[in-house]
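[audit] Reproducing an earlier prediction to check determinism. Same input, same settings, fresh worker. If the tokens differ from the archived copy the diff job will pick it up downstream; this log only records the rerun itself.
[audit] input (500 residues):
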Amino acid sequence: MTTDPMHADAYEHGPEHSPEHSPEHGPEYEIYDLVGVGIGPFNLSLAALADGTPGLRTLFLDAKPAFSWHPGLLMEGTVLQVPFLADLVTMADPTSSWSYLNYLREHDRMFPFFFSERFHIPRREYDHYCRWVAEHLPSCRFDARVTEVEWDERHEAFAVTHRSADGTVSRVRARQIVLGVGTNPVVPEPLRPLLTPAHAGRVLHSADYRTHRARLAGLDDVTVVGAGQSGAEVALDLLRHQDGSGAGGPYVRWLARTPAFAPMEYSKIGLEHFTPDYIRYFRALPEERREELVRAQWQLYKGVSEETLAEIHDELYERTIGGTEPRAALHPGVVLVAVEPERADADADTDIGTRTGTRTGTGEGGGYLLTCRHTEQDALFEVRTSAIVAATGYAATRPAFLDTMAKLVDWDEQGRYRIDGDYRVALDASVSGALYVQNAELHTHGVGAPDLTLGAWRAATILNAVAGRTVLRVPERAAWTTFGAPGERVPEAGAPVVWP
């Protein structure tokens, strides 16, 4: 990318070499108390809660032309897995004008919502609600791709460079930064070589499902990999494209690494893992124990809603009336070992392991031979399919724009942020500014990191730290569960704890 000629000198040499664009003159060098990078639900929550805070100047930047939230999965009928009260602000400030209830009022939907008796709202409406907030908050600026963040020691501020789609380069300074850049799709290693234009629309992550939905529905056979909510929703949507005649719509195969297609933990006491109380407990544990817990607690944040599992079961029941064989297969406890593209003229009648006697047509452009391993039986098997949708989740990664100041970050042994209780990243002592992160702290704060339930609470915690005062009161205790040993610890090894 080329630098905008109008700003070339300032971009290359810094504001001190460009008097006409000095901090006192050029708007590209305005200074803010807080600059947020990325405008997803979490940073949007912080922007909404910070709106109107006296003495606090904020700016939030995002590369997209407008707000959008998982557009590839905004299918009709899908709902949030958290109640509507887990909007951008309510759990921290229910009086905010940026609440979901106020959104309903502004759009004349209060009565329809009341009569619908919904607690879990449509995902498409949540996206529209967030877009409404983003469009009305003056602190949110889109078409602003951040390309560099560096520590400006002379001005004791972060220098943030961003670029618009037309190539215009601008720069602002920030006393504090919050990263809300989201997470990136994770794809199993055997599929990564196939993420090329030659396989577009036939090998993809579920993040792009809606874009290729019509094409996938027209294929003979589609394999979905991943047992979480996204995988379940993709499998259900593909099943609904079957016409029940045994011919229309794709054969749907659902593979999962987990030992079962299990429902997400949603009991009232179980949900207390998504409270500040559990975060404080989790943070105090040794790192190795935290790693073990995150792996063991997959059902807390990677399970499927009971409603979606029930809908899949109902679809399969409907299609087997009269003894008809289901045009679907569900395989838990399976790991994808290898994937091999096949020619378009490959034998379409070859037995494909668990499925026989049915049409296996590879569809347009050839198909794929999948080698899989059943983990409990330690048995290998093969299947052929026309397309593969990897509903294999997301992970936090270090954004490239931080490379310029990477040496100033105190990374842990695995190259991850060290994060304190206020979501502040540990930096070199020479940096007087603060860097915060949202949804990059699974390893330090536990399973609540990606959950919308804690979004407003975390944003309020960061806002208080940024402002250096209590802007919004956050609860000291939110759970009835006591995480950890109760009372005072008895020094003798193996002795019982003393209850209060």
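[audit] rerun output stored. Observation attached for the diff report: Residues 68 and 127 are 7 Å apart (CA to CA).
[audit] end
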